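Here's what a typical entry looks like (HTH luxR-type domain-containing protein):
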Amino acid sequence: MSNKQSPIEQEFISLYEELADPLYRRFVFKISHAERSKDLVQETFTKCWEYISQGKEVKNLKAFIYKIANNLIIDEYRKKKSISLDFLREGGFDAVAKDEDNRIVENAERENVSKIIDRLPSKYRDVVTMRYVDGLTPGEIARVIGETENTVSVRINRSIKKMRDILRIYGKQT
């Protein structure tokens, strides 16, 4: 029995070591639940491995992993909406208020930042999230989204400017 790994297995393991922590931070930032975020990191890599082990070609494995992660985040939002509606039907608004009070207080800062980021156009939202939540460099972001590093840097700078503008507007409203 050989312990020799194929090039795709080596690349996959290397990407797991590189991306597990940034993906975990991304999931926590997006869904605000640490244990579920750990599960989603594992699910991301499991789905990726299942896909490539079927012999299907992936041109950019890192971009593919982020695509899977983003789809899982969307699925979580859909589930959360459904669960919240069911909870309201069963327990009423008072039960929701009591259960959510502590979580709202604990996550207020993250939620405010998230709201500001969510107000950005998607091309800006994606790069600022990859840069400051996932910790990717502009060069890595460029490879993930298929743009030049210069384009990514410009988008990051424009994102920050737009966030400042949103903060100014938001500050005037409160």
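Residues 92-96 have pLDDT under 50 and may be disordered.

More examples are in the samples folder.
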